[in-house]
Amino acid sequence: MDTNEHEHVIEVTDLRRVYGGGFEAVRGITFSVSRGEVFALLGTNGAGKTSTVEVLEGLAAPSGGRVRVLGHDPHTERAAVRPRTGVMLQEGGFPSELTVAETARMWAGCTSGARPVPEALALVGLERRAAVRVKQLSGGERRRLDLALALLGAPEVLFLDEPTTGLDPEGRRDTWELVRALRDGGTTVLLTTHYLEEAEGLADRLAIMSEGRIAVTGTPAEVTAGRPSRISFELPAGYFVGDLPPLGELGVVGHEVAGRVVRLRTHELQRAATGLLVWAERARIELRRLEMRSASLEEAFLGIAREQEVAV
Ligand SMILES: Nc1ncnc2c1ncn2[C@@H]1O[C@H](COP(=O)(O)OP(=O)(O)OP(=O)(O)O)[C@@H](O)[C@H]1O
Fold first, then answer.
1. Measuring CA to CA, which residue among 104, 126, 124 is closest to residue 115?
2. 50 contacts 80 by C-beta, under 8 angstroms
3. Quick check: 87 and 118 in contact, CB under 8 A?
4. For atom 30 of ligand 1, which residue has the closest CA?
5. Residue 50 beta carbon below 6 angstroms from any ligand 1 atom
6. Which tens digit of pLDDT belongs to each residue from 194-241?
7. pLDDT at 9 over 70
8. Which residue range or ranges hold the ABC transporter domain (predicted)?
9. Ligand 1 pocket test: which of 15, 18, 19 has the largest number of ligand atoms within 8 Å of its C-beta?
């Protein structure tokens, strides 16, 4: 039986992946993705994202644990899963002498139920580049072509490995809109990304990986809950952190100083900001480069990276 609306389209249970030399890149991770959801895997370089996605794509067998895509094992039941999934790898690597349209037609020939090539190219804004040779495309246009090929089979499940790396801001926004439209049409999307605003803006749920494990998972709001807000500013010459009101009284839970720049972390942004600004007003000093930011995914990510450094 295949999945229905209410089942998980992707199920990962205690997945492990060990490479030839014995290195354990994925150390027992569990998560699931429902139909029509966008799920983002985040993590520092080497956290194990690609190693995980490769197993989901059926390109590698798990060393331990269990993976199901559309109810099937993507490695041993590849024939059942592959026609219903679209894969955008980090490096497409197609013959560079072919044109965009020729590449897409070649790919369509290997794809069951492929949509018309012009339609796939239009989805990613490459319709006017159809006659251009792949080697003449910019890095961002190649990423768009990668995405067009992944979309040729109108997949139910789409794997996107760093889909917007190399795209300019407009291209990135176009890709986000496309992913949202696909999601609204019922496509399930699993993406890896280094752009936290991409995960924050696109993902229904996400997991932050660190050293082969999931450090935290949930909706973007759940992941940022409990993380501190940040205030940063530059002190004028002659002033030092010790001149500020006692940080504990401002509700500050941590601080860093780099030259003149001071960064404060607090769970009470209004109290800390008010105390700081009243102090500055009274002392008649201007806090240059003043920035205040509510808890964000970036803070959650950096917090996990810091914890990882401390543990080393
Ligand atoms: N074929 C391999 N043999 C041995 N170790 C590998 C192999 N491929 C990856 N690794 C190691 O496994 C770990 C996880 O790599 P992986 O590519 O999954 O990380 P990632 O989270 O996708 O990183 P990035 O953000 O840099 O793409 C890294 O330490 C990497 O060096």
1. 104
2. no
3. no
4. 46
5. yes
6. 888 899 989 999 999 999 999 999 999 899 887 889 999 999 999 999
7. yes
8. 10-236
9. 19
- Nearest residue (by CA) to ligand 1, atom 3, is 19
Residues 6+ apart with CB under 8 A from 46: 25
Residue range 288-309: mean pLDDT, rounded: 84
Is any ligand 1 atom within 6 A of the Cβ of residue 208? no
The interface pTM score, or ipTM, of the predicted complex is 0.96
Of all protein residues, the one whose alpha carbon is nearest to atom 10 of ligand 1 is 25
